[in-house]
Specification:
heterodimer, A: alpha/beta, eight-stranded mixed beta sheet, four-stranded antiparallel beta sheet, 12 strands, B: mainly alpha, about 0% strand
């Protein structure tokens, strides 16, 4: 494989809370190739969004310690970049869309102004040209009657439309990488499918890489080529999407997969993973999943497991299961 | 509402037309708002009076000792003062100075207050410093602060303006800051940062426009306060210097003769009350229409 577009090594992000420093993201490494779609799954609070925000250095604030590790993009470490260079990358090379389209648009600016903002910022387009480009982009994200919509204010658009506008803003400068942080969570199911279709088509059309963050395994199965599962700030498993669904290696992944409703089986209650994600400030010796793990062993509670290789493109943070896999092979 | 009856023409509407229609809707709401319209008419009459003052054809500073202390009568609608100057003309010219001071103070404190407000909302480290300065300014009563500054700068019109602007900056800054603090937590600010916007751009393109409603309303109140405060400062002898008439210094000069020549203080005093009332009604109306949470039908 050629050098990946984005390579994150040992990214660690810490926040200060009333209870002391907590580690929101703990030595996370990932790589995204050109044109690749990587999915990141995990429960709320598993560190997926913080990882994404930290790639773009959007973690500012007095309560955050400067992340450690490396975020290599185009031969440069984004974490060490001067702010001016970082701003030049944001929006033009790496773009991001958010979960809630209702609050992601400025209510006092027209759609044209907001799509045009990054065009004027990064490509120096004048107002009229930016507006024309905005109409083209609205067409591209399949908003009907784009020429009229472009001059409207966000409150006149539905949630699905607004998310399309957000996507139009994100792809305005033809970014090489799009980070989509739960882009469909706030939308209803039929719209979700449309937005995912749109994202996939755009990815193919523009040849961009996508990092898709979600807690919906169905979305992952449809969209990603490779999946990274996060739990309590750590990566617990990475695998190509087919392998992950066929043969998960981490008990947490088992749990997530078991919680997907199945069409062919009649169930009254979906299986759930008992307990909840640990308090990030809590100190858990050994494997962080051990308090909830159904196949926990004595050593899991004392030894913190490493992320172990388990075949090409596969890693898992569960020594017993990885050993069992090797044994079988 | 009237909106429902308005025909909607989706196919023909151009972008400018849509933006214009939105502005038009606010305008129409204002036109239907009773207290806004009353305030607007009062202010309009005041401004016209100030601008048309030269039409009386009388020099406001021309003395006529033979005609001093004339009560209101045919030739002198508002009477004359101790130098025989025509008070009607002086009150009209006084409107020029008083309204000018009100406007300048409103604009000056609005611009600087807004800048301080968004700065401290955007840069949290700067916030505590700026807000402590604002607190210190606010701790002193506005009029006392203005007296101190006015005394330091000397009795001139522009020193009155500066003194009053400084006195009213903290309130405006607080209001803009509060509004910007709410706005900056919304996702579109993060989205703007993702798009590569600088802090400056976020402040002036995203935070400030979302605070225009409260800012505008606050400025109308500052306008009214400034007119009142100018009168108070003149009364205390540190207002705009005579002989140029302002409502405040006409009253100040008339106070020695208040018992026998009540009219000297009455008319400019009435003008001050009316101007303050007008601006307050205007501000109330603006607040009702611009704040979508207050669904008041005036």
């Amino acid at each position: 494989m050629a050098a990946p577009l984005l390579e994150v090594n040992d990214l660690t992000v810490r926040f200060r809370t009333d209870a002391g420093w907590m580690t929101a993201v703990d030595r996370v490494s990932l790589a995204v190739g050109e044109g690749e779609a990587l999915g990141i799954v995990g429960e709320s609070g598993s560190g997926k969004s913080v990882t994404a925000l930290s790639i773009l250095r959007l973690h500012a604030g007095p309560t955050t310690r400067m992340p450690t590790g490396k975020v290599m993009y185009g031969g440069r470490d984004l974490l060490g970049l001067p702010m001016r260079d970082m701003r030049a990358i944001r929006g033009s090379e790496i773009a991001m869309i958010f979960q809630d389209p209702m609050s992601s648009l400025n209510p006092v600016l027209t759609i044209a102004d907001q799509i045009g903002e990054s065009l004027r910022l990064h490509q120096g387009l004048d107002h009229a040209t930016a507006r024309r480009r905005a109409v083209e982009l609205l067409d591209l994200v399949r908003i009907p009657d784009a020429a009229r919509r472009v001059d409207e204010y966000p409150h006149r658009l539905s949630g699905g439309m607004r998310q399309r506008v957000m996507i139009a803003i994100a792809i305005a400068c033809r970014p090489k990488l799009l980070i989509a942080d739960e882009p469909t969570t706030a939308l209803d199911v039929t719209i979700q499918a449309q937005i995912l279709d749109l994202l996939r088509d755009l990815q193919a059309e523009l040849g961009m890489s996508v990092i898709l963050i979600t807690h919906d395994m169905g979305v992952i199965a449809e969209f990603a080529r490779r999946v990274m599962v996060m739990y309590a700030g750590r990566v617990v498993e990475t695998a190509p999407v087919g392998q992950l669904f066929r043969r998960p290696l981490h008990p947490y992944t088992d749990g997530l997969l078991a919680a997907i409703p199945k069409l062919d089986v009649d169930v009254r209650r979906l299986p759930a993973i008992p307990g909840s994600i640990p308090d990030p400030t809590a100190v858990i010796p050994g494997c962080r999943y051990s308090p909830r793990c159904p196949m926990v062993q004595a050593r899991c509670r004392t030894e913190a497991p490493d992320l172990l290789p388990a075949g090409p493109e596969r890693q898992a943070r569960c020594p017993p299961r990885v050993a069992a896999l090797e044994h079988a092979a | 509402m009237a909106d429902a009856t308005m025909s909607y023409q989706p196919a023909l509407a151009s972008g400018e037309a849509i933006a214009a229609r939105r502005r038009f809707r606010i305008l129409r709401k204002l036109l239907h708002h009773r207290s806004f319209m009353v305030g607007f008419v009062i202010v309009l009459v005041m401004v016209m009076a100030a601008l048309l003052a030269p039409l009386t054809g009388i020099d406001p500073n021309k003395m006529a000792i033979r005609f001093r202390f004339r009560p209101p009568q045919d030739a002198y609608w508002f009477g004359t003062d101790q130098f025989g100057r025509d008070l009607f003309t002086r009150t009209l010219y006084g409107a020029q100075l008083s309204l000018w001071i009100g406007l300048s103070v409103a604009v000056l404190s609005g611009v600087i207050g807004a800048a301080i407000g968004v700065l401290s909302a955007q840069f949290r480290r700067l916030d505590s410093l700026l807000m402590r300065i604002m607190d210190a300014l606010m701790a002193a009563p506005a009029i006392l602060l203005a007296i101190g500054l006015g005394a330091a700068l000397g009795p001139q019109t522009h020193s009155v303006i500066i003194a009053l602007a400084v006195a009213y900056i903290p309130r405006t800054a607080r209001i803009v800051r509060a509004s910007a603090l709410v706005t900056r937590e919304l996702e579109f600010i993060e989205a703007a940062r993702v798009a590569g916007a600088s802090s400056l751009r976020i402040m002036f393109r995203h935070l400030l426009p979302n605070a225009t409603g409260p800012l505008l309303v606050q400025s109308t109140f500052v306008f009214a306060y400034a007119i009142l405060a100018e009168a108070a400062l003149s009364f205390l002898g540190i207002g705009p210097p005579p002989p140029a008439p302002s409502w405040g210094n006409i009253i100040a000069e008339g106070r020695s003769f208040a018992v026998q020549s009540w009219w000297i203080m009455l008319f400019p005093g009435f003008a001050i009350s009316l101007a303050a009332l007008g601006m307050n009604l205007l501000g109330d109306g603006l607040r009702d229409v611009l704040d979508p949470r207050l669904k008041v039908e005036g």
